[in-house]
Amino acid sequence: MTEHPLREAAQAYLAVVRAHAASMSETELVEALTGLQEARNIQDATETMLLAELSRIEHVWAEDGTLQERRHPFGRQDLGTVDLVAPCIGVSHHVAASRLTDMSRIVRTPLLMEEMAAGRLDRFRASIVADELVDASTEVAHEVVELLVARFTRLGGWVETAGPLRRRTAAVLERVDSTVIAERDAFELRRRGLFRRVESTRLDRWDGVYPVEDSRRAFALVDERARAILAAGGAETLAQARADAHVQLILGQSKVVLHVHVATSSEMAVEPAAGSQGFAGNAIQDVADESVVLHGFGVSGETVVPRSWLQKMVATGEAVRSTDLTCDPVTGALIGGRVPKGLVAHARPVVEGPPRVTGSTERSQAASAAYRPSAELRRLVSLRDGHCRFPGCSVTIRQCDLDHVRPWPTGLTTQGNLMALCRRHHRLKQSPGWQVRLLPDARVEWTDPIGRVRTSWPIDHLGATLPERRPAPPSSAAEPGPLIPARGWHSTLPDLSTEDLPYDMVDHSPLVEWLERLLKEAAADPSLCDPSLIPPRATDAPRPRSWDLTEAPF
């Protein structure tokens, strides 16, 4: 490889530093570092210029069939420039693309390039200034940079770090052209929003962007209540207390009623107790563990909540029992019941076939001569399937079509002939050689062109496919009650379905009592805990123990 002059100079400078760094004074070391940084700034300017020239080049085919180069004005980037640059500077495709973006913004204001070429400004801070001026006109950007250069020349250099430099650039821009800042503020306000995503089965994460004039007052209110909660022992940390205070302030403004739909097996009917305002007397007893699993509680998956919370909601009337949902006893699939609008995300309407027959949007779930399913039937099939019914496909129901298993009009528009399919597998089902069967228990059997049969299972809303629940160990306080069959819950939001978690407990009381006795002996005779009394361990002999473990309960 041919030695580059710049590389030779850098290696020569490194050799000088290696030879004399140990004998240099503190002042000389600082001056050497300052000179090295100035040289690096000049290299950044050189790299920016090389990138700018490289990005101008476009390869085109000439009329004679030869490949020629065409140069465009600065700022234009050829499609392949990024992939040419990335291996040269040893970075990924995305980093190279970011470097080229910075280059195009810096060369827009030649005065920034001059400051870098003089060694006074590094590329990082130059890119900060250029980024703040990206939505300003070229004339305005030139004027802002001139004012910044004049100021830092008086101060003896670019002494401000990234954050203060960004704020100062914006302040100078506001003085030069306030309309740019006004348009930027309007755009920033359009970015406000609150987003929720599932962190785990027990936690949600909220990410919010708010206007500062509202955010800081609201946070002061939350913080004040949070500190009162923390002082009263209601939370372990201030962050936990703020989360509790935030929820209290929101829920304190209105009352949200949870409409709960009990999902029962088609082999057992549960009727509400006479005069009951909420759940049937034996239905609430199903929630017997410390935690319960809710389905459809604002998300398509499962959510775990404390049992005490659900019981409190029922007792206060904030959770009421609505229409029941019937499930298959073997697969737990939803096979009947009225699904309300808030319980399930809708699949996309059927996009193929003849136009919809006019009539009510809430027709019954019985066989229909119409091609398109009613809104009520769509909700039932959507809640039953939850996602695409091709084996292994997890495309959410929001991005699926409801497709007839047996083509219409041979196959009627019923829940026994409809299933959710994404567009890809919707087309695959219609391909030669593929066969599909929807079984009465809502399983879907797919047969591929080579004869393999695969099964897609519906969502188990009943817990029917889970192993049998282990009974809790007998307690001295009360005799264990009779085992109650597992049952799910659904509601509208909130519409949810809940079922108990598998339960298991081990009695550790003998081990705890033994450990407590050992601690008392150690407190009475501290020499038992003296490590110096334990002889060193031999490589071929077991280490002696200072405790008598013959009575240990394990």
UniProtKB/TrEMBL annotation:
UniProt domain HNH nuclease: residue ranges: 376-427
Origin species: Phycicoccus elongatus Lp2
Protein name (database record): HNH nuclease domain-containing protein
Alphabetical list of Gene3D superfamilies matching this protein: 1.10.30.50
Chain spans, region Disordered: 464-486, 528-554
InterPro entries hit by this protein: HNH_nuc
Top-level taxon: Bacteria
